[in-house]
UniProtKB/TrEMBL annotation:
Protein's GO biological process: cell adhesion mediated by integrin; cell migration; cell-cell adhesion; cell-matrix adhesion; integrin-mediated signaling pathway; stress fiber assembly; transforming growth factor beta receptor signaling pathway
Domain PSI intervals: 31-80
Protein name: Integrin beta
Matching PANTHER family: INTEGRIN BETA SUBUNIT (PTHR10082), INTEGRIN BETA-5 (PTHR10082:SF26)
Localization annotation: Cell membrane
Record-annotated Integrin beta subunit VWA domain positions: 39-468
Record key words, sorted: Calcium, Cell adhesion, Cell membrane, Disulfide bond, EGF-like domain, Glycoprotein, Integrin, Magnesium, Membrane, Metal-binding, Repeat, Signal, Transmembrane, Transmembrane helix
Signal peptide: 1-28
Entry superkingdom: Eukaryota
Topological category with respect to the lipid bilayer: Single-pass type I membrane protein
GO MF term set: integrin binding; metal ion binding
InterPro entries tied to this protein: EGF_integrin_2, Integrin_beta_N, Integrin_bsu, Integrin_bsu_cyt_dom, Integrin_bsu_tail_dom_sf, Integrin_bsu_VWA, Integrin_dom_sf, Integrin_I-EGF_CS
Homology family: Belongs to the integrin beta chain family.
Length: 711
């Protein structure tokens, strides 16, 4: 009977612990409170949902109550709404001109393809805001097309094919735009060994002695023959004049030429209000950055325009080839769509380049450029049917998420582009922005969002909501802070040498002595490491698990489990709670002290005199004997006893089972043995030593045939 009762207690005890854990995790405090922020700014940084109450005296009682909490909790705890600091991220539109629908017909400089044009974001770190951007590629937008051609020897037949390209291309492009300009440039390679022939006999004519084609021009980096013009016949004239060149290695210096064509915007004549198409026709692979080292060119490409009076790339033999990254950057900066028109053999390589350089496409060029017009028209249509947003100068601590809504009206999250558009379709992008950190106060940043290849862009300026409004009303030497500190956002920042909630203690008075007043004993942590020593008493922190209290924050209501108010744990933790029960019963005169000291309730707590009134009395409480409650030893013995008992019962059961099992086994063994004895006579392993075989004696001697076969 005794053990049965203990068992029940034990079960209840365990259930209690489990219940305790469950309810506590549900009730757990939020990140704002447990973050123990000491200023409004710190609080705002903890989490976007945290708010700060700057109301005077809010949360300055005992125990320590956080001024940083979810704004709903602050309201519930009595903070007035106007004292709650909780900035939100916002976006506001500063410039919002409507989209244009037609390009060439409207006034030249007012074509708008993105809306809005200017936005300002005000971001609270961690809290995101969103804005919408609409893009509509206008109909009949002007087009600038620059034809950049490889003039190495293998392109001789191509040169013949494009002699009348200008006229034909203009005819085709007229169907697409009423405003078309064409330009023309060529390239070979750097005129340096080992890329080109530099021996004296090749100086004037690198084809010297080359039977199939004995006359050609020396190689060169890049030449601009015809800046962009609407007089397309001039294109034909320039092409007629060209003579191919010859150089030594297979890769050509085309990327030098692309870079120059992109960055020399005045010389090439790119218009601001036009699509910029750069057609790059070649039949070989390009040289890339660092190849120049073969010829001793150690200076990296500077990405600047170096066209001289003769319209020739003058730094060709001074600088290395450009890198893909530089090329991509310069093309994007100048809104240039690059179209690689390359032979089938090198299609894959250039296809790979398009993945690395945004805004480029690749098309297969016939052996002698016969399909060049279809190719250009196809590439142009391909470009026109796409809208892709690119972000420029994105601040590092800012993250952007895009959701595209293309022509079918379905939002596609994570996508910043739309394809297969028809002219005049409008697409919209929902962009959410969130900051991750607070830069130094007053920092403003800005960045740009731009559809690839468009001159239109959206400018976005960003400022940060990291400050609290209440900080502006800080008072130095405030009388809220005993004239010894700055009163800011409802708290006191004490001057050097002062502390306490209201800076009411000065260093001289306090010294090490008063810190000692916050220690339970010498060598122990101040306020048991669970509170802060303010003047000469502990303000205990709030904990996620429950209440921390006591003179030195040494007590709590979660370190031990209870059943019906009876503690079930080791004596040192029993102390606090047992004391409460006993004191109230036996010594009602101390009730107020007990209430205020341990639980911060009652009248002394209300007028903050607890510390003074009850200073000596707590010592008495610790020596009191608790007769009413169960002795800790009994609980311990009960627990140990029941554990032992359960162990013994289990052991006994085990023993019983084993014994029964053994008996059965033994019986089986016995019966098997007796059976074995009985069957010994026919042991299957036993073989009688004598065996008898009978031989057929009447075999026929002559039935054996001659060749040994048996019939
Ligand atoms: C801070 O003050 C500004 C103007 O003084 C006001 O617009 C803004 O709403 C205030 N912010 C908060 C969080 O109270
Ligand atoms: C953008 O998308 C978010 C959800 O991802 C939505 O809350 C917000 O209202 C949208 N903004 C606009 C301007 O459509
Ligand atoms: C192109 O890229 C693919 C995949 O990355 C690679 O397997 C292939 O070798 C590349 N081709 C060339 C010619 O670089
Ligand atoms: C605080 O309140 C208690 C009980 O009402 C009273 O006895 C005590 O004098 C008060 N102390 C002060 C400083 O007002
Ligand atoms: Ca070459």
């Amino acid at each position: 009977m005794w053990s049965f009762q203990l068992c029940c207690h034990l079960a209840l005890f365990l259930a209690g612990i489990i219940l305790h854990i469950c309810t506590d995790t549900v009730k757990g405090l939020n990140v704002c409170v447990s973050g123990s922020a000491t200023s409004c700014e710190e609080c705002l940084l903890l989490h976007p949902s945290c708010a700060w109450c700057s109301q005077e005296n809010f949360g300055r009682g005992r125990p320590f109550m956080s001024q940083c909490d979810l704004s709903q909790n602050l309201l519930n705890r009595g903070c007035k709404a106007r004292y709650i600091e909780n900035p939100r991220s916002t976006s506001s539109i500063l410039k919002n001109k409507p989209l244009s629908s037609k390009g060439s017909l409207s006034a030249q400089y007012d074509i708008i393809q993105i809306q809005p044009q200017k936005i300002s974001l005000s971001l609270r770190p961690g809290h995101q805001t969103s804005f919408e951007v609409q893009v509509r590629p206008v109909e009949d937008y002007p087009v600038d097309l620059y034809y950049l051609m490889d003039l190495s020897l293998s392109m001789k037949d191509d040169l013949d094919t494009i002699r009348n390209l200008g006229t034909k291309l203009a005819e085709e492009m007229k169907k697409l735009t009423s405003n078309f300009r064409l330009g023309f440039g060529t390239f070979v390679d750097k005129n340096l060994s080992p890329f080109s022939y530099t021996a004296p006999k090749y100086k004037e004519n690198p084809c010297n002695g080359y039977k199939p084609f004995p006359n050609c021009v020396p190689s060169f980096g890049f030449r601009n023959h015809l800046s962009l013009t609407d007089k397309v016949d001039r294109f034909n004239e320039e092409v007629q004049k060209q003579v191919v060149s010859r150089n030594r290695d297979a890769p050509e210096g085309g990327f030098d030429a692309i870079l120059q064509a992109a960055v020399c915007k005045e010389r090439i004549g790119w218009r601001k209000e036009a699509y910029h198409l750069l057609v790059f026709a070649t039949d070989d692979v390009p040289h890339l950055a660092l190849d120049g080292k073969l010829a001793g060119l150690v200076q990296p490409n500077d990405g600047q325009c170096h066209l001289n009076e003769e319209n020739e790339y003058s730094a060709s033999t001074k600088m290395d080839y450009p890198s893909l990254a530089l090329l991509g950057e310069k093309l994007a900066e100048n809104n240039i769509f690059l179209i690689f028109a390359v032979t089938k053999r090198h299609y894959v390589l250039y296809k790979n380049f398009t993945a690395l350089i945004p805004g480029t496409t690749v098309e297969i060029l016939d052996q002698s450029s016969k399909n060049i017009i279809q190719l250009i028209v196809a590439a142009y249509n391909n470009i026109r049917s796409k809208v892709e947003l690119s972000v420029w100068d994105q601040p590092e601590d800012l993250s952007l998420a895009f959701t595209a809504t293309c022509q079918d009206g379905k939002p596609l999250s994570g996508l910043s582009k739309c394809a297969e558009l028809k002219i005049g379709d409008t697409v919209s992008f929902n962009i959410s922005a969130a900051a991750h950190s607070c830069p130094s106060p007053g920092t403003k940043k800005s960045f740009t969002i731009k559809p690839v290849g468009f001159k239109d862009s959206l400018e976005i300026s960003v400022d940060y909501q990291c400050d609290c409004n209440c900080t502006r009303f800080s008072q130095a030497n405030s009388n809220h802070c005993t004239n010894a500190g700055t009163y800011t956002c409802g708290t006191c920042n004490c001057d050097l040498g002062y502390h306490g909630t209201n800076c009411e203690c000065s260093e001289d008075e306090v010294g090490s002595l008063n810190l000692a007043a916050c220690r339970e004993a010498k060598g122990k942590q101040v306020c048991s490491g669970r509170g802060e020593c303010s003047c000469n008493y502990c303000r205990c922190y709030e904990s996620e698990f429950g209440k921390i209290y006591g003179m030195y924050c040494e007590c709590d209501d979660f370190s031990c489990a209870r059943h019906k108010g009876i503690l079930c744990s080791v004596p040192s933790i029993l102390k606090c709670v047992l004391v409460r029960e006993c004191m109230v019963q036996k010594n009602p005169g101390f009730r107020d002290c007990i209430e205020c000291l341990l639980f911060n309730t009652g009248k002394f707590a209300d007028n903050h005199t607890c510390q003074r009134m009850c200073k000596d009395k707590i010592i008495v409480t610790e020596t009191l004997v608790c007769a009413a409650s169960i002795d800790a030893m009994t609980v311990l013995l009960a627990v140990v006893g029941s554990i032992l008992l359960v162990g013994i019962v289990l052991l006994a059961m085990w023993k019983l089972v084993i014994t029964i099992h053994d008996r059965r086994e033994f019986a089986r063994f016995q019966s098997a043995r007796s059976r074995a004895r009985y069957e010994m006579a026919s042991n299957p392993l036993y073989k009688h030593p004598i065996s008898t075989h009978s031989v057929e004696t009447t075999f026929q001697m002559y039935s054996k045939s001659y060749n040994g076969g048996v019939h």
